[in-house]
Each structure stands twice: as structure tokens, then as C-alpha cells.
Amino acid sequence: MSKPLYQPQSGVLTVQYAPDEHTVLIENPPRFTWIPAQLDGDSYVLQYSTSPDFDMELTVTVQPVPYNLYTPVRALAPGEYYWRYALLDSRPPSGDTAGAVGQFDDQSVSVGSAGRLDHKSATGDATGAAGELDSALVSGAAAGSASAPDNALLADTSTCLGRTEWSVTRRFTVPPGLPETPLAGRDSRYAHASKAHPRLWLQASELPEFRRKVRDNPASVGWDAFLDRSVIPWTERALIAEPLPYPNNKRVAKLWRQMYMDCQEALYAIRHLSIAGVVLEDRALIENAKTWLMHVTAWDPQGTTSRDYNDEAAFRIAGALAWGYDWLYHALTETERELVRERLLQRTEQVAFHVMERSKIHHVPFDSHAVRSLSSVLVPCCIAMLGEEDKANSWLNYTLEYYSCLYTPWGGADGGWAEGPMYWTTGMAFVTEALNLLRKYTDIDFYRRPFFQKTGDFPLYCFSPDTIRASFGDQSSLGDPVSLKTGFNIRQFAGITGNGLYQWYFEQTKATDTDSEMKFYNYGWWDFRFDEMMYLHDYPTVEAQQPTEVDPVKWFRDIGWVAFHADMHDPERHIMLLTKSSPYGSISHSHGDQNGFLLHAFGEPLAIESGYYIAFGSTMHMNWRKQTRATNSLLIDGAGQYAGTNKVLNMAASGTVEAVENHDNYSYSRCNATAAYKENVPYLERCVRELYFFGKSYIVVVDHVDLSQPGRIDWLFHTLYEMKIDGQSFKVQGRKADMDGRFVYSASGDLDISQHNEFTDVEPSEIEGFERQWHLTASARPARSHRIVTLLVPIRKDEPKYVSYFMDDQDHGVHLYFTENGVTNKVEVPKAY
């Protein structure tokens, strides 16, 4: 009798049991995920079938599956399927539980050898099979396709490795026409990978042709700028000293940042000198690169640049060793190679251990740094060591299976990124570099996945290139123009998809962000000339397309963001209104800003993302920017949404976009943030905000708040300028635009309006020298139900306009009419009783 299987209930922070009958698949094959049956040492047998009884001839069986996730190696025929899993008694003895090699998973394909159980031992070559003992059990790829003798071998898979009872059976449907994005099995995954070095970016076989391009037309691949500004300076710089510890080993933000920037410079020196020396076959550059590499190799892997001391520093040093080892491979002596590889292995193992064993992102995928370290560390480091260190094969397999199945935890089919645009920038910068390395080295192309096909839409609509302070979440570039690196990222997706809108975005950022190269959020993270050189070599030129016909309202359902636009193509006339009510709540780099909104119009930030970026964990960050009081949202009896450090409560403090509509003369959204306030305001029954964007000209905000006891509502608004307050109106006067704000209806009577320019509970030293911003509070009298209607009219300088209004409340609703230039629109608000 089989042992019982523990099937824990999934939670808000864990992976989910998927797919099931509620899952809408966006790619084929489906990605199978489940909650681990035990904490450690788990591996599984997985079955999926067109038969609810898992008839042998209609069932695919895969074992061992080393983690609680699996991507089939072939797409499935459209139709209805069932799946289940069981826990195997133990992991295979190899230590690299790789599973499912050599299988044919497409039930629409006839497989004459179906039903054969193959065991393949390690070959130790550069195919990536080193150290593996993989097996695959496949049955009946199509009904009747397998012979009876072969099928007879599949009567009971429990005889292979021993298993528990089967899990609950789940059903899912594969619709026709989905993009096909299978993942090659571990036996064939590295079939195209060469043993030769270099492997990172340029392959050894590409070097002769690239040398020809550099000789004949260096500007065509950006080589001249790369050599002049990203290589030669490092021949003249003194070696960078190993970073010193923090005073008393207590982290100081300024020193933490300097430490990782020193390590970034070490990466620049090693990578750029190595590439230039090898491409030019220049002995002096190669020797200079070796000097830098051996100097950094000598740094203590357990010291100040270890993962546990400063992970940002550790990521950079691991990457530096990987690029140096790979590109200088033939210039190093055997002793030097062994030393560099030993240190590279140590540093990579620190990161892999944290990702796989401590953070366990295959259990709980919402660790921003751990997920990013797959791209910045595990991909380049494991490629450099593949076939030379057994562990590199295991870590790279884990990474590819995560990319294929769980990436990204921050968004979905719409391409959104819940942490916000600056962390999209960081995440995409590293993941695109990693995916480019993988595609060139292994021929595995993750860009075909739906997320990567659409994610360029996220900055296009939610971080438009002419806007400032007009997007949500943590932003190291807050207050500056949209980062040029964001533009470089979106150009990458132009090259992948051919989307001319993305190329337009890149060209806009290149024209506007002209002086940020040396700022810490650029220089300390990437080198634009190196980016340019790689892109020009690997991707085609895409013609820019003006965004004259973009969606007037864009709903990112995956993250709960809604963007309204008018005249995006013309910065002087562009109006952007952004709102969110996100299922991600305030987790990670998100804030307590559900139902909040931002407004940028005519080249001017009007309703802003307030505050400054000091450092993650600073008092500005924790006490102001993450809190609801810093957003254009509501407080209830002085309390905002939960935005503390408890990740469970962060995720629970979520919002929902209930509706998004586009009509001939207006666009509309309705968002519900009730859950976001529940931890701090348990007597809240309903908090809904409606936004109407009329005539691509003005906005009406309708707030509905219902409580089980009387409470006061504070309506919040933030801007760069001191406002003029007059009765129930307030006016923003900017440099390029103004905005008239007017409370046209409040169910509890006139609002008490005030403003201040303080950052409450922020350490004064953090904001010394920064310009003050202005924060408006409109307070309603205590009541159990509140209805507040606000009119916002952005006005271009020297182009006077106004929107008139009147109210009719003769029945059970309040009917508000707004008129501009002879066009009248109606908003109906249910009365509060």
C-alpha cells in the first residue's frame, strides 16, 4: 500500500497548484506547479493524460521530477487533460535530480518507442549531462501509437523508484492557437553548447567574423566607442582595493552603495579588458586583464564581497570572475585557471545555496534579489563552468526550469511588473542579458514566452518617456527623466518582436536622458557602450513608429495597473493618468497605494509620486514613500493601507481592478482597495474609486467609502508646488501646466482643506538640501458612508480653459453634469444613507 502524500494548502506567498479547471493557459505546453510534499530531498513522478482514469495508453509519465515544477518538452494537442503527481521515496543517487530526459511528451505525435524506460548515465562532456542519472517514462503519445509489449512495461510506475499515493487529480484545457514554448529535456538541453571558450556573448566560432567587423567598420558594432570609453580607461586605473567592512559590521547605506560600485568597476575592468584583448589579439590588454582578474580572484569569498555580507557586491564579483575566466581561458596557466574556477565556484555556490535552499524561490517566488541573481550570477557563472564543474550543470538546470515555469512572479501575459518600472528596468536588464547568453550558447529561446513578447508595453504605457514622477513603486531615479537604461531594455524587445513603438521609446529616452550615465543607478549597474555593442551585433535595426494610435486606456490585468493616455506621441500635449489596485499589495518594492492615481500633463508632473529615493530601508522609504499618506489616495481615521515588513500582510493588503471601459468620449476604471485597509481599519466595509477621463481632457474621481461605524476620511493629493486653496477648490501652478482641482460633491458636507510641505517621520538628515513638496489633505466629517466627487482639470500654460458643472439629486442618486466646449458628460453617484 502506498504511503500517504502530504498536500499542503497553498498560500498567498507560495506557488499554486496549477493548472486546474480555472486556469486560462497562455502558452503550450502548460506549466505544472504544486506545493512541495516535504521540505527537503523531494522528487516526484508526474502524470498527465487525456483520460481521467489515467489509462495507460493515454498517459504520459515523467520521473524523477526534481522540484515542484515541470515544463514538458513538447507542446500538447488541444483538448482536455488531467494531471497528478506523487512523491518518490528518494532522490536519484546522482545528486542532480534531472528527470524527464529523452521523452516525447506530445500526445499528438506517434512515438514508436513509447513505454520504454531508459536510464542514461553521465558522459561528463559539455552537453551538460555530467553527474546525472536521468530517466524518462513515456506512455502513449497518441492513442494506439505504442505497441502492446512496450505498454505492458508501464503497468505500475511505482515499481521504478517507489512513490506515495497519487495527489488530487486536476483538470485543465489546452485551447488551440497558443504559442508553443516547450523546454528541452536535460539530456538534450546543451546539445548545441560548445566546450570551447569564450562562451559568454560571442562564441569562439564567432570571433573571426567579429574581428573582421572590428577591423573593417568598428562603428557598425559600436566598437570604437566601447574601446575608447569602456576599455582604455581601465589600462590607466590603479587596481581597486578589496572593500573594507562596515564600521562594527553594521550596514551603512552610503558605504553599501560605494562597495557595490567598486565591485561594478572591477567587473567593468575585467570584462572589457578581456573582451578587447581577445578580440584585438592584443597581448598588453590581455595581460592587463589578467592582472585585474587575479587581483579580484584573491579577494576573500567569505569576506565583504560574500553574498551574506553584501549581495549586490557578491553578484558583481561572481560575474567578473565568470567573464574573466571565460574570455581569458586560453591566456591563463592551468594553475591560474584552477584558482579562478575554484573561487568562481565558491561564489556561485553561495548564491545558488541562498536561492535554492534558503530563499527557495521554487516554493515562494517573491524574493526580488534571489530571482534577479539567477540572471546576474547563475547564468553567466554556470555557462562559464559548464562541463568543467558538475554543480554548474545542476544550478543551470534549476535556473532554466525556473525561467520556463515560474518566471516571472511579478507579472503575466500582459507583460506587467508589479514592483514598478525601475525594478522592471533592473530585472529586465539582467534577465535579457542572461537570455541572450543562453540563446547564443544553448539555442534555448525564452523570448518566445508571452510575457517577453508583451512586456515592452509596461514601460510604454506606465512609464512613458516624457513623464517624471508618474509611476508607482520604488524608483532609484525618482524625480529624474525616464532612465536611458529603460530605453535600452525596451529596444531589446523591439529587436525581439519588431515592435516599432518600442524603438520609438528608446529614441525618446536617448534624446531626453542625456546626463545620467554617471549617476549611481546607471554607472553602478551597467555600461551603455557594452550594451550598445552587444545589441548592434546581435539584433536588427527596427524602424521607430510614432504612438499615434495606442490604446486610450490600457489595463494590465496581471498586476492591476490601468493607464489612460491622450496624445502620447506629443510630449507638449500628452496627458497620462495612471492608477492601480494590485493583487500584489505592498509586497517587495510596491507601496500602500492601492486606488492611488498619478497625473502628468503637458510636460508637467501634477499629481506626483512624492518623496525622494534615499535608500531601501531608510526612514524616507519606510515611513513615507511606502505609506499611504505619501500617495494620492485616502486615509480612514488617519490610517492607511498596510505597508509594513510582514510579507503575508503585504500581499493581503491588495486591491482589485473591477472594471475598465473605453467609450467614444471617455475612458473609465473602477478599483476596489477594501482589502488593503483591513489590517489597519477592520471596520471598513467598502473602499472603491472610480476614474472618468472625459474627452482626453479632464478627470472626475469618485470615491465610495462605507464603514460599520462613523469614521473620518482624508482625501490626499501631492504635487511639487504650493497650491492655492479657495473654498472647496485647489489650484496647482506649474512651469508648463496648471491644474484646477475642485470637490464638487461630498456626502458629509464641505471638506476641510489644508496643505503642508513636511515629510512626516523622516530623518531630517536624509532630505537635507532637497526641495520640499506639497501635500494636500481634504478631510470629511465623520460618517458611516462617504461619497466624494473631485474634478481635476489639467491646463496647458497660456491656454485657458474650464469645465463647468451642476448637480441634480432629486431621486436616489446624485447626478453630476460636466461641460466643456459644449459637450456635457454625466456621472451618477448613489447616495450615501
From TrEMBL:
Domain Heparinase II/III-like C-terminal, first and last residues per copy: 552-790
Top-level taxon of the source organism: Bacteria
GO cellular component: cell envelope
Domain Heparinase II N-terminal: 163-519
Molecular function GO terms recorded: lyase activity
Main location: other
Localization: Cell envelope
Protein name: DUF4962 domain-containing protein
Species per Swiss-Prot/TrEMBL record: Paenibacillus xerothermodurans
